[in-house]
């Protein structure tokens, strides 16, 4: 059976080598991956599968040497097909030894991961290009700060603007760019605080170069957060605007000089004309009396007319865009008296239709007071900031949207949720205001799809589902990706709970429909937690937390469900946090212990083994049920440490039983996420000296329900150690029978729910009869759990159940209490 299974595998190249590296057999996956048929490759030295440069470097021999010395060789790299093409491969070579430890060959497993490698290379190339782009920009200082304000990186524009090299500035606090008076006033910290609280800080002002000189800068600081909303730093963009600032000041200075010194008017006018003509900004002067344009520099004519000589002498209202003409007229109307001082105007930014199409312009206008019979004029200074505006919008978009799906990210989600809550609180009309609903969404089984089909398929699935979920929403609703496979929705729900539940049902149904990606038919579920404002919370953080607690409850109930937040969930969450804290201390204080429940032979009642059951006696709260603390251990990752303790303790105590009886240990599905699980079991056996055939490992059907084929691989590794694998709670899962084709189990354990009803329910009896018949047909031991009465025992014995376990034969007890039981006469079943 195993040979047929291996030969039929097509996704993995699986073949054997003899001790000298000669290919002994060849499966379909190997032929598909490497291009050789079995006839072509069997008998050849496996080095032909390596690139010439790797063969010259002795890599094949080094691989075998490491596998021979350590038992395993793992690596990834380029390999060669029969036609000479190359593919990127994950490679595992395991040394195979007989019972006497003599090397009899090697098992070699290769998987083609070319698509993943090319994707990684593409991502690295994109990142490299973007880094080169930023590093190559010289007009803008672009660099990153860490959350405390220290410089992380430095581009050419920053070095040009501020005078520091990267080696001189990286690691220093960015406040060194500020003038001493600004540092004393706390301006750097205020900028970071505003960016941290609102997402962005914008300003202009004087900054200091390395040599002590100052320059006028336009500054933008954007807060950068990760998928969890955690602040990871700031993006800071600075542009040296000294030339423009100086020119603006020179214009004002020239005007004032001309007004103060009539006798120097001609020289001042010439100087002014020179400055205006060479300014990079557009300058227009309108005669306040006639409304005609008296002066327009070359930049203004090119911006507004595309040619020179088209503006001067013509009515401003006829040749200027309406926005510019309106700004000039307003300045003239509100300007100072004829001999009054000129105030520095406030800049206005707006889209304006120009000769080059719609452009974003920064505009300043002020009235210039005349002297004597000279009329007042309107001075307009215009700067085309379209490129700067586009870059700013792009940075802002990247900081607030998910790069994969284009959806709002966690930061933008929080902002919009805050706005929705504020709008709801501000309503003063008498009509009942709609509730604001937050729906927290999580995909069921997404990790398995990522693991089995690859991240490109997973990314495609996320993009597809994002569109499908967005289409299921109403205008005005917000869908955001919070990170990974977690999404969230903001919706106004006039019908409160009923409408929020209807929306959740609609989203679950939208996600449930199968999706075809790259020839794969994918079905995925959606779990949803629902929270409403103001009923559950009136703050963004509080409402999101309520939604996440409800989501946890929905996932606890099963896949494809939704749950409404209620106060008891907060209590449960606090209890889980308390258990988590106490459990960490319990592990350190060694409060966890094992109790053992006997497993008896149905035929004569003799004890054949024990199941190790974990117990926790809290020093102040007393015994705590495994149903309360095991899920917490699985969620927090403590299950690995606890599982290792259980394996070592059970093997150690069982090794001292003179009866030679077996011990059964439960493995959590969460432990299968640890690639070293098989190694941990082997270590426990080695440390205790327990024979592997005396160790029984119990798993639940959820281990095989995971779409990851890695779990089956780990089960095979455990079986190869010589342990027996038992399928616990059999008959309660999604597709129990299919698991028996996936893996050859040594034992089936009938769930106690069927045993409890066996004497009163024909249905329960029929299930037990079917399972015991299946066990006999497959030659698998069948154990009934939860046997509490002699009547149940008699019925199970009559149905051919192999082993029995339950309170009828003994409650779980510490190892020290097993000695009497081990020497006592065998228990006899009722009717035996």
Automatic annotation (TrEMBL):
It comes from the Bacteria. InterPro entries: Biofilm_reg_signaling, EAL_dom, EAL_sf, GGDEF_dom, Nucleotide_cyclase, PAC, PAS, PAS-assoc_C. Residues 1-71, 126-199 form the PAS domain. This is 3',5'-cyclic-nucleotide phosphodiesterase. The lineage of its organism: Bacteria, Pseudomonadati, Pseudomonadota, Alphaproteobacteria, Hyphomicrobiales. Residues 576-826 form the EAL domain. It comes from Methylobacterium platani. Residues 73-125, 201-253 form the PAC domain. Residues 434-567 form the GGDEF domain.
């Amino acid at each position: 059976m195993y040979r047929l299974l291996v030969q039929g595998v097509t996704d993995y190249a699986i073949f054997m080598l003899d001790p000298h590296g000669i290919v002994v057999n060849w499966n379909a996956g190997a032929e598909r991956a490497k291009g050789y048929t079995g006839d072509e490759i069997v008998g050849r030295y496996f080095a032909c599968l390596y690139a010439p440069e790797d063969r010259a470097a002795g890599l094949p021999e080094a691989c075998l040497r490491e596998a021979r010395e350590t038992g395993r060789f793992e690596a990834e790299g380029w390999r060669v097909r029969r036609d000479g093409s190359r593919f990127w491969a994950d490679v595992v070579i395991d040394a195979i030894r007989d019972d006497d430890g003599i090397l009899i060959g090697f098992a070699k497993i290769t998987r083609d991961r070319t698509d993943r490698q090319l994707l990684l290379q593409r991502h690295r190339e994109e990142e490299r290009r973007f880094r080169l782009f930023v590093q190559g920009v010289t007009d803008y200082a672009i660099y990153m700060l860490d959350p405390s304000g220290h410089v992380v990186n430095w581009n050419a524009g920053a070095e040009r603007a501020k005078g520091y090299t990267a080696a001189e500035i990286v690691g220093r606090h960015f406040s060194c760019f500020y003038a001493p008076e600004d540092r004393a006033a706390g301006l750097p910290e205020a900028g970071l605080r505003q960016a941290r609280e609102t997402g962005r800080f914008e300003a202009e002002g004087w900054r200091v170069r390395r040599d002590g000189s100052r320059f006028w800068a336009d500054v933008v600081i954007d807060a950068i957060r990760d998928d969890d909303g955690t602040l990871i730093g700031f993006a800071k963009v600075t542009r040296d605007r000294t030339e423009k600032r100086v020119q603006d000041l020179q214009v004002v200075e020239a005007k004032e000089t001309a007004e103060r010194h009539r006798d120097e008017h001609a020289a001042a006018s010439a100087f002014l004309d020179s400055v205006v003509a060479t300014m990079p900004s557009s300058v227009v002067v309108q005669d306040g009396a006639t409304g005609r344009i008296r002066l327009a520099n070359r930049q203004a004519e090119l911006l507004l007319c595309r040619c020179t000589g088209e503006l001067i002498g013509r009515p401003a209202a006829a040749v200027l865009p309406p926005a510019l003409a309106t700004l000039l007229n307003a300045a003239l109307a509100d300007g100072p008296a004829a001999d009054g001082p000129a105030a520095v105007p406030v800049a206005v930014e707006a889209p304006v239709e120009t000769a080059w199409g719609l452009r974003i312009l920064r505009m300043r206008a002020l009235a210039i007071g005349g002297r004597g019979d000279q009329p007042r004029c309107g001075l307009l200074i215009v700067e085309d900031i379209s490129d700067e505006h586009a870059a700013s919008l792009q940075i802002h978009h990247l900081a607030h949207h998910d790069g994969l799906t284009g959806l709002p990210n966690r930061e933008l989600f929080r902002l919009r949720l805050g706005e929705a809550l504020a709008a709801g609180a501000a309503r003063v009309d008498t009509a009942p205001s709609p509730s604001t609903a937050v729906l927290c969404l999580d995909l069921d089984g997404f990790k398995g799809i990522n693991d089995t089909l690859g991240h490109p398929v997973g990314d495609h699935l996320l993009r597809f589902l994002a569109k499908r979920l967005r289409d299921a929403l109403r205008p005005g609703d917000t869908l955001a990706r919070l990170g990974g496979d977690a999404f969230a929705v903001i919706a106004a729900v006039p019908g409160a709970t009923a409408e929020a539940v209807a929306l959740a049902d609609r989203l679950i149904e939208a996600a449930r429909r199968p999706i075809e990606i790259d020839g794969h038919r994918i079905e995925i579920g959606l779990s949803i937690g629902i929270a409403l404002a103001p009923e559950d919370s009136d703050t963004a953080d509080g409402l999101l937390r309520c939604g996440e607690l409800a989501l946890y409850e929905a996932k606890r109930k099963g896949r494809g469900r939704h749950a409404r937040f209620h106060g008891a969930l907060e209590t449960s969450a606090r209890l889980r946090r308390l258990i988590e804290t106490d459990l960490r201390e319990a592990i350190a204080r060694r409060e966890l212990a094992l109790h053992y429940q006997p497993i008896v032979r149905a035929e004569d009642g003799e004890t054949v083994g024990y199941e190790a059951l974990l117990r926790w006696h809290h020093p102040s709260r007393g015994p705590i049920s495994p149903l309360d603390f095991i899920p917490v251990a699985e969620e927090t990752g403590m299950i690995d440490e606890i599982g290792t303790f259980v394996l070592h303790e059970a093997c150690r105590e069982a090794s001292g039983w003179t009866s030679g009886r077996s011990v059964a240990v439960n493995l959590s599905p969460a432990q299968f996420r640890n690639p070293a699980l098989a190694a941990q079991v082997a270590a426990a056996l080695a440390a205790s000296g327990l024979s592997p055939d005396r160790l029984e490992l119990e798993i639940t059907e959820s281990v095989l329900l995971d779409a990851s084929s890695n779990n089956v691989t780990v089960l095979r590794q455990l079986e190869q150690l010589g342990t027996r694998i038992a399928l616990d709670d059999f008959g309660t899962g999604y597709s129990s029978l299919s698991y028996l084709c996936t893996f050859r189990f040594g034992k089936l354990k009938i769930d106690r729910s069927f045993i409890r009803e066996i004497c009163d329910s024909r249905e329960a009896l029929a299930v037990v009869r079917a399972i015991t018949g299946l066990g006999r047909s497959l030659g698998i031991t069948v154990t009934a759990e939860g046997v509490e009465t002699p009547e149940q025992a008699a019925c199970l014995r009559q149905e051919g159940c192999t082993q029995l376990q339950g309170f009828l034969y003994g409650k779980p007890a510490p190892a020290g209490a097993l000695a009497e039981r081990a020497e006592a006469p065998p228990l006899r079943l009722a009717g035996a």
